[in-house]
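Board notes, transcribed. Complex of a protein with NAP.
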Amino acid sequence: MTDTPAPFRWGILGVARINRALVGPLASNGHQLLAIASRSLARARTYADAQGIPRAYGSYEELLADPDIDAVYIPLPHSMHVEWAEKAAEAKKHVLVEKPISLDGAGVRTLQSAARTHDVVITEAFMYRHHPLVAKVRELAHDGTIGRLQGVRGTFSFVLDRPADTRLDPEFGGGSLWDVGCYPVSFARTVVGQRPVAVQAAANWSPGTIDLSFFGQIQFPDDIVAHVHSSFESPFKTEMEVIGSEGRLLIKRPFKPETVETIEVMTPTETYLVTVEGPALYQGEVDDVRESARSGRAPLVTLDDSLDNVDTLTALLKGARTGNTVELP
Ligand SMILES: NC(=O)c1ccc[n+]([C@@H]2O[C@H](COP(=O)([O-])OP(=O)(O)OC[C@H]3O[C@@H](n4cnc5c(N)ncnc54)[C@H](OP(=O)(O)O)[C@@H]3O)[C@@H](O)[C@H]2O)c1
């Protein structure tokens, strides 16, 4: 007879809109969603009752003090990620923290230190990375299918029509690059597989000085270049294209892949689809935290990886503000 492992017990900090995508994965496949916290106890209670979550707390601190909780999911506004991920680590909780994990490299280094000191897993919630789609794209980009890899191009845009959204507030780390541009930057870096060396960029700034649209160019070693676009002011679109000397790969749903997803391969002589099957979106990142916590292995999205992404994003923003080429250290 085999023992069934105890459920891995989660708490959520904040009644965020994105929770609707996570409450299922956090309560299935051997996980238990044990508690939710809100700045308002009434909001936490209402949400807990509606979702069948056993415990509700009126502050994030109270949830972190609950000894029955193994891990927390942090879907707070961008500028609050580092502070609460660090507090969760101090409370000995493993952490799945939403993107962007930090608004500067120093924040990621703080979390690296906290993860080491308190012996917990901290990982950034780039859910798309847990679908084998991106690993397959990376393989096809380097195995000669499209010749020599020359570049990557990608976009993530949508119309943000909620004036009170923290994404529009510079105090909360607003801006399209931080919110959705982080995806094409992450995808391009993952496919190229090298740390960028320099960036150039331009943006359309709002009166409150967040970027409403962002256009970035990232230079990698070996003359590989990525072009990334993000926007809060053009209709929804996500796409990534990988360009080689003898063909291209087109990925139409790079950041929210379906369970069965396709990559379009175009060469001068033929166009065909490569099919990739993966877990339900969001389940992979939740399972990864538990497996890392229990086995001691590194999570798929390591803090070193997040540091490279954040460094690239901060360099792009500096490039757009100054109009200069910015080299990465
Ligand atoms: N991976 C994905 O597919 C995906 C999709 C969308 C968003 N996201 C990310 O998820 C995170 C949350 O995004 P969201 O759109 O779900 O956020 P949201 O609906 O605005 O929720 C954020 C929550 O943060 C809490 N909060 C604490 N202090 C706050 C303050 N001063 N102002 C506003 N809210 C405050 C609030 O919860 P309480 O009032 O209950 O405490 C609020 O509900 C962001 O990092 C975003 O980039 C990821």
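The chain has a mean pLDDT of 97. Residues 14-18, 38-40, 43, 75-78, 98-99, 125, 127, 166, 179 surround NAP (CB under 6 Å).
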